[in-house]
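Repro case for the chain-ordering regression, as requested:
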Amino acid sequence: MTSRRQFIRNTAIAGAGMSIVPHWVSATQKPQDKIEELKVGLIGVGLRGTNHLQNLILRNDVRVTALCDIDADRIALCRNLIKEAGKNAPLIFEGGPYDYLNLLDSKEVDAVIIATPWLWHTRMTVDAMKAGKYAGVEVSAANTLEECWDLVNTHEATGTHMMILENVNYRRDILAVLNMVKQEVFGELVHFRCGYQHDLRHVKFNNGKQPYGGGVEFGEKAISEARWRTLHSVKRNADVYPTHGLGPVAVMADINRGNRFLSLTSHASKSIGLHNYIVKNGGEDHPNADVEFKQGDVITTTIDTARGETIIITHDCNLPRPYSLGFRVQGANG
Amino acid sequence: MTSRRQFIRNTAIAGAGMSIVPHWVSATQKPQDKIEELKVGLIGVGLRGTNHLQNLILRNDVRVTALCDIDADRIALCRNLIKEAGKNAPLIFEGGPYDYLNLLDSKEVDAVIIATPWLWHTRMTVDAMKAGKYAGVEVSAANTLEECWDLVNTHEATGTHMMILENVNYRRDILAVLNMVKQEVFGELVHFRCGYQHDLRHVKFNNGKQPYGGGVEFGEKAISEARWRTLHSVKRNADVYPTHGLGPVAVMADINRGNRFLSLTSHASKSIGLHNYIVKNGGEDHPNADVEFKQGDVITTTIDTARGETIIITHDCNLPRPYSLGFRVQGANG
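-- result from build under test --
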């Protein structure tokens, strides 16, 4: 067992080692050709993409060379942030949903960060890899099994790398537990629990003016995530967002590093949370009170792994509840 | 919302109302024929049956009239407890595994409490109902789907009552939450979690001299529960003990009172806990180190109900862990 000081140092080093920027190189360069400055293009600069921008402009070894969005207001906001930081003006791609392809053609871009609505993730990542760019894509990265294979097949065909930007993997508590797993504190692993238990009702609905809450609109009458994310709850009865839970567990369980997922079952509860929210905040006569949501409020998925562990994943985003991803790591030692 | 005082009074009344003894009447009497003293026979007086006896001899409205066990030492111990309490000597049935049938024939017995190994539960309860006795049977009460139907069919044919003695249902915390459910504190119910998370390794193994631990023997070389219970872990890969968790949830979810279980899936993790315990405490050369345990260490079962709730049940008894049944009740209000 290492000392607490050593433990924190190791964790900090692991965290730095896993941050993506210092190790990225242009896809056309060999790893040993150290470059002074990484040229990053941002595809999608909503709230999440803007947050990435704010982090990137703090660094001297990164230059944001291109911005792409269909929303001119977001582009203007981000261009201003870059200007205020005293950095060079980026190339702008705001010519509709497919202008990102022009961004990918640019030699001013080594790598891209994709922070667009979910249904664009795989398509854009595949196109980025085909264009020889390193691609960082927001979760959930893929929506179907076919899309998962699209990512694998494209990586194998192009040799270009992509990374899922699953931020929970790098939380300090998660890295601490990962360190404990690797030090075999838990012994041989047997069982995991994880998930996404997060009351997103104010994210799924707004008033078209503010990004969070203030109304019960979604889709075209809403802005930000409620504009597109909520439709997944209308149309899909599934755990549409498993990676916050599964990302850290997959690393701890050596998934695709000597272990793999074998099979799963999934159960959905009734769906009442979003409807109740609309009735409570918009009234029974609001048009959205008639919307039928397919997504069960609590989705329970259990996975068997090749090494014999079981994993319970929970998706629980439509009911009032305190935030908790509900992690458990259980092994032969406890 | 009631006051705390009222709440506690209601809970206490509910507890008393649900305790089995005051409302029992001889099966041959009509409910309105109030009897002075209930005549109870005990079938199985191991640790659990003896515990029932100790509670019963504190009451003035109950007389323990018969004892049945294949172990003469346990009979002697219990007979002594009755004598020390200044009560009349009971009838004794210690003539082998089927002498309980003679107990059931006795007119000195109105009701029986069955606290024998699991595989005897259904058979003895069915025979008790056929003999016109009220039967209280320890958990788990049935081991197969067919046995569950045996209990239902016998009740419907005889009109005689049986009750599963699921003690967790009557814990103060469980009754408090049940009261909250009935007062709709949680709102419409959506999701439950429950189970049996209890490190039973010292129950599953002993040294043949003491009931708990002190060795790694089970079966014929062991005494008490390790003599029979551990074999279920050798031969069955299943949640063999779901009622501690499912009993309270079934009441809260109105199962068979307007709601019902529809379907389930079940996943078992690897099985390493009991083997590791034997190796650690008995050494690699102990004969039991070669035993293959079928039962996975963590069994996860998810049930769908007719009203659309989901229930996760956990069986987790072979690993070092703190005791917790892991209850969660989740509804539209939280």
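Ordering looks correct now. The longest strand of chain A covers residues 189-197.
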